[in-house]
Amino acid sequence: MLADILAVLPETALALMGMVVLILGLAKVRNHLAVAVLTLGSLLLAGVLLSHVGRAVDPGEHFMFGMFVLDRFAIYFKALLLACSFLTVLLSIDYLMRHDARPGEYLALVMLATVGMMTMASGVHLAAIYVGLELMALSTYVLAGYFRRQVKSHEAAAKYFVLGALSSGILLYGLSLLYGATGTLELQAIAGRLAQGPPSAAALAGIGLLACGFLFKVAAVPFHMWTPDVYEGAPTPITTFMSVGPKAAAFAIFLRVFDGGLAPVAESWRPLVWGAAALTMVWGNIAALTQDNVKRMLAYSSIAHAGYALVGLVAGGDAGVQSVLLYMLVYTVTNVGAFGLVILLESRGYAGQTVQDFAGLARKQPVAAFGMLLFLLSLGGIPPTAGFMGKLYVFAAAIRSGYVWLVVIAVLMSAVSLYYYLRIVLQMYLRDGEGVEPAPMVSAVWTERALWACAVAVLLIGLWPGPFAAAAAAGLGIMPLP
Amino acid sequence: MDWIVAHFAELVFFYLAAIAVVGAGCVVIFRSPINAALALLCTFLAIAGIFVLAHAELLAAVQVLVYAGGIMVLFLFAIMLVNVRALPQQPQFMRRLVPAAAVAGLLLAGLLVVAMWRVGQGPLADPATLTTAEGALVGNTQAVAWSLFMQYLLPFEVVSIVLLVAIIGAIVLGRKETAEEGA
Question: Are residues A236 and A285 in the same domain?
């Protein structure tokens, strides 16, 4: 019993601190910075607890009556998710102050969403996974509509809520069919039941619906329609959060359920995910070509990146899982950096959101322009940045598993993606001396700190990927063997 | 007299079932929303009674508390906010949905027939699980509690946070905005 309590200690601590932050917000503490620093401290505390607890408990054991594991896969994802939330809070501090918004509920919702995502990363029982997913999703819907004066923020929240609820319904229907076919919700037991023989029609239908639900959550084509509008309308720090945190958490359960519990019937779902990965890479990149709004462009780019990560998931096996884990880390630091620079340029209203707002940035703000260059190169997958290493591991894993055609599509589409990433670089460096002015930059010390951290991480992973790849490899072992 | 004693449970069931069906029909037929809401309340209470007959005491209590209590109050709140007196005179826009409703009803009836047929083949689940926990015979409420607070403790706790988030969300999105905020 003590081990059970120990295993969920990081989540418990974070949830309790979330409520403390909520109460501080209600108590009309007008010092935004103090509340935000407390949030950052709580996320750090959860990280420290996680590292201690992770060492103390048996990685193969199931806790909370078969609901929860704390294997290295879970620990890796939880550390990554905590980092996502930490960076999000850093990006949000200046944004909240600039818009004079109430910090209490906002920061508490970020923390509670993190609790949900961490539950997803550890869940080995479909009920635990589903409630974690709902906790994450519900918090994110509210955050998307947090700035009520902005009509677009409203629209984003409403669209996200309706479509998210629809996808949850599809997911639940899939879960119930799978439960009906196998008689259990525990992933390990499901794997055992499915290994006994060819899957029934009900199980196949359940798996198909489950795949649709998960593809929706990771924003893969053809379930991506909500992404551009929601990413554009939501407050930019929350867009950043949505594009990294919930996406990484969704990949965690996608990997655990499909490459774990449903591995015995991999041949039945692999073509489906193969097709979705190919479509996602092609459509995400092609649609991004024509976007003038940087937030929309980055939204399509994040769709495309989900496609690359799906390639690793299709590849499966130890190498495939490792590549997805590494890719999520690379994508997180890169995407937070790129969105962070958009936030810096977004002084008031919607300024700083079009590609033209970057014109001549290199002359006015050379450091910021160089940072954006770094993040865009990393998104495009150019060495020596992290993006190159992430793609390298994914493509290598896919080729080793024999998915050469998928890799061909991925490489071609990466080349296409360079066009729209370099469009911004072109504006920053070459549209100079033509009388154009970049959007004025806001002073935001905390956002800058987050950006420095991301830039260092992008270069570090790109130049010295060994330890990071080793950490991702340690995240293997989706299903603890009986 | 003996016949009545022997079939007492069945008689009560048919009585409650009749109330439930008639109440549900009235919800559709009544034009005044207040009357429809009260008819719905009758249906909820009758179904709670049927749960008691099926030895699902906890479900009966939950039915009364959540449906007859909470959801009913929600309905009445919604009715309070619209102009009730004018409603019965207004045209019914839903009339054109009658074919859709008929199809949905037929599908549901088909599902019921299949379910009844399947039950005739043998029980779907062991009814003893309703009243056993850890191998001992206990009440239905206790059996549910064992399952809820042992095996499903983690989802239960997470769901409680989900509800908290829902409350926060409703307040955040619904609060009156002040002039200086969130520009």
Answer: no
Chain A residues with CB under 8 Å of B153 CB are: 64-65, 67
- Number of helices and strands in chain A (H, E): 20, 2
8 Å CB contact between A382 and A388: yes
Only one residue has tokens 């774990």, namely A260
β-strand partners of A269: none
Residues A164-192: pLDDT tens digits? 999 999 999 999 999 988 888 998 889 88
Considering the domain architecture, whether residues A453 and A319 belong to the same structural domain is answered as yes
pLDDT of B90 strictly over 90: no
Chain A residues inside the 8 Å CB shell of B165: 109, 112, 135, 138-139, 142
d(CA A275, CA A278): 5
In a domain, A221, yes or no: no
Q: Domain range spanning residue A276? A: 267-476
Burial A106-142 (b: 16+ CB within 10 A, else e): bbbbbbbbbbbbbbbbbbbbbbbbbbbbbbbbbbbbb
Last residue of a domain, one of A222, A240, A260: A260
Cα separation, A255 vs A248, in Å, equals 10
A192 occurs within a structural domain = no
Compute, in degrees rounded to 10, the torsion defined by CA atoms A323, A325, A329, A330: 10
A191 part of a folded domain: no
pLDDT higher for A22 or B121? A22
Rounded CA gap, A37 and A33, in Å?
Answer: 6
ipTM of the complex: 0.90
CB–CB of A285/A300 below 8 Å?
Answer: yes
Residues A244 and A354 both lie in one domain:
no
Question: Are A245 and A345 members of one domain?
Answer: no
- CA of A143: which chain B residue's CA is closest? B169
Same domain, A16 and A131: yes
Is residue B88 less than 8 Å (CB to CB) from chain A? no
Pick from A132, A135, A148: CB nearest B165: A135
Cβ atoms of A102 and A147 closer than 8 Å: no
Give CA–CA dist A383/A389, Å, rounded: 8
Q: Could you tell me if A103 and A127 lie in one domain?
A: yes
Entry pTM: 0.90
Residues A69, A101 within the same domain: yes
CA distance A176 to B97: 29
Q: Is residue A30 part of a domain?
A: yes
Residue B179's pLDDT is 47
Q: What Å distances lie between residue A195 and A93, A207, A272, A320, CA to CA?
A: 50, 14, 20, 21
Could you give the number of structural domains in chain A? 2
- Give the residue among A254, A347, A252, A238 at the shortest CA–CA distance from A299: A238
CA-based torsion, A465, A468, A473, A479: positive or negative? negative
Considering the domain architecture, whether residues A86 and A6 belong to the same structural domain is answered as yes
